[in-house]
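REQUEST ID: PR-0412
SUBMITTED BY: lab tech R.K.
PRIORITY: routine
TASK: structure prediction, single protein chain
INPUT:
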Amino acid sequence: MARNQYKYFIGIDPGTKTGLAAKSGGKLKVVEGHTILTAMERVKELAQDLPKDELLIVVEDPNKRKWFSGSEEEVQAKRQGVGSVKRDVSVWKEFLERQGLNFEMVHPIKNGTKLKSGVFKSITGWTGRTNEHSRDASMLIFGR
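STATUS: complete
OUTPUT:
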């Protein structure tokens, strides 16, 4: 199915605190943060009653990122953090394949990341509680 024919989207911002967002009918329906296992259970719940050919899962993939900025210590810390997220991304990929779900791994730069709560609310209209990770997951799917 062509990208523009999907009707339902789930965004995943992997990490120790996994961001999860779901969108349908052009509106955000879910904006949450979970552990990786709870996020996977939520994906199963959200996907269970949807036609698989109309659902796309979008996962931020740090494996596509090749650059970091900052001091040498900051760059090393970022690389170490990204290493654990890279492992999580491989777990997500296997999970989504086993579930038979359509998914796309996207470069972090394509995501409108690190938005402050107020900016996020003004862009998306979402008035519920959020955290940095749930906002990042939302931005993966918001413009689709």
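NOTES: The domain at 3-142 is CATH 3.30.420.10 (Nucleotidyltransferase; domain 5).
REVIEWED BY: pending
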